Amino acid sequence: MTQCWKTVLSLAVLAATCPTPACAAPPETCTVARVGGRPLQLELLVPEGPGPHPVLVWVHGGGWMGGDHRRFPGFTGPALQQGFAVASLDYRLSSEAGQWGEAPVVWPAQLDDVKAGIRWLRANADTRRLDPDRIYAWGHSAGGHLVAMLALTNDEPAFEGRVGPHLTTSSRVEAVIDSAGPSDLFSIQDGNPPGGNAINHDAVDSPESLLLGAGEHGHSLGEIKANRKRTDWPWKRLRLLGESASPIKQVDDEDDALLILIHGRKDRLVPFAQAQRLAERCRLRRVPVETIWLDEVGHDSMRPGPGSQALNRLRSMAFPATMEEDSISQE
After folding, report:
1. pLDDT score, position 284
2. Mean pLDDT throughout 134-159?
3. What is the mean pLDDT of the segment spanning 30-59?
4. Are 45 and 51 contacting, i.e. CB atoms less than 8 angstroms apart?
5. Per-residue b or e along 72-95, where b marks 16 or more CB atoms closer than 10 Å to that residue's CB
6. Is 67 left (phi over 0), alpha (psi -120 to 50) or beta?
7. What pLDDT was estimated at residue 16?
8. Which residues have a Cβ under 8 Å from the Cβ of 75 and sit 6 or more positions away?
9. Of 66, 68, 84, which Cα lies nearest the Cα of 76?
10. What is the mean pLDDT of residues 139-145?
């Protein structure tokens, strides 16, 4: 395992606490689809009561190459107590080449799998006491990137993929919490965080390069950037692939899901500039966005204080009759 992998995976562990919160019954393991002969699964916790309950979907981090969907984040207990069902989604990792049969493990496989999980939850809402009209998502690091992509590609057929049996069911989310997620793969190396970058994002073994298939074609993110103006094979395809994997490139006037961005100003793995620029682009295009900037925090932005603040914002949307909406924007 390279030092790059160790850095990403050790930080991903900070966002996960325990396999099952002490306050909850064991989760239901649900098979969303079979990909390359292997089950793609999610873990589902539903609070007591008749429902239907709003759903808070967790997407773990780990550089798109590590992490475990069976580990729930720290907000799970409070979310259940407030009436949310919590679902933790599995998705293909770039480190799992060959483990999903002939199915690819590079972009957009990760987004395809997460959208399949959302569709499964909506299609099975009645039998699980879930509300299909109140689905929200939260992710950290690579998971933050994926939930931002969910919000910014709502109702866009080109980003739906072909995973799972519920292809005519919507994968729409109403709001997402993006904690420390990358927004622009082509500028992440240039973020200039305090103390410098923790890893070289342009290297061939970086999480971003592997996401874009460097393990197969051998071209690093740095090479793709250097050849962005070329129109010959494979550079045009790789440039378009990188753009399709960058949330900032998906922002348009039709986006209406709320993005809540949580980011530490001292993040050396995903520079603060990534979130700052995404917020600026959203405001320019009048896309709803709210921010929680953490002054003395690095990549470990999954903290109780800002987490409670963000969860309360979702609660104000999910239960408007019981909680007054309160904008959380902080600059």
Report:
1. 98
2. 98
3. 97
4. no
5. bbbbbbbbbebbbbbbbbbbbbbb
6. left
7. 47
8. 56, 138, 307, 308, 311
9. 84
10. 98
Predicted confidence at residue 322, as pLDDT, reads 75
Tokens of 161: 């993929």
Q: Is 157 helix (H, G, I), strand (E, B) or coil?
A: helix
- 290: tokens are 């709210």
pLDDT > 50? residue 9: no
Structure tokens at 167: 């292809």
135 beta partners = 55
Q: Helices marked H in the chain — which ranges?
A: 3-13, 76-81, 109-123, 125-128, 142-152, 207-211, 214-217, 221-226, 235-244, 272-284, 304-318
Structural domains of the chain ordered from first start: 3-318 (3.40.50.1820)
Sign of the C-alpha dihedral computed for residues 189, 97, 248 and 297 taken in this order? negative
Two structure tokens written together for 244: 């399709």
pLDDT classification of 324: cutoffs 50, 70, 90: low
Q: What is the pLDDT of residues 283-314, one digit of tens each?
A: 999 999 999 999 999 999 999 999 999 999 99
pLDDT, tens digit, 9 for 90 and up, residues 166-188: 999 999 999 999 999 999 999 99
Q: Phi and psi dihedrals of 74, rounded to 5?
A: -65, -25
Cα-only R_g, the chain: 18
Tokens linked to 232:
């010959």
Measured distance CA(159)–CA(314) in Å, rounded: 25
Other CB atoms within 10 Å distance of the CB of residue 157 = 7
Residue 11, helix vs strand vs coil: helix
- The CA distance from 264 to 303, in Å, is 11
Nearest to 201 by CA among 154, 161, 145: 145
Query: Both tokens of residue 143?
Result: 């998971």
Encoded tokens for 160? 């739906």
Would you state the torsion angle of the CA atoms of residues 191, 209, 242, 90, taken in this order, to the nearest 10 degrees? -100
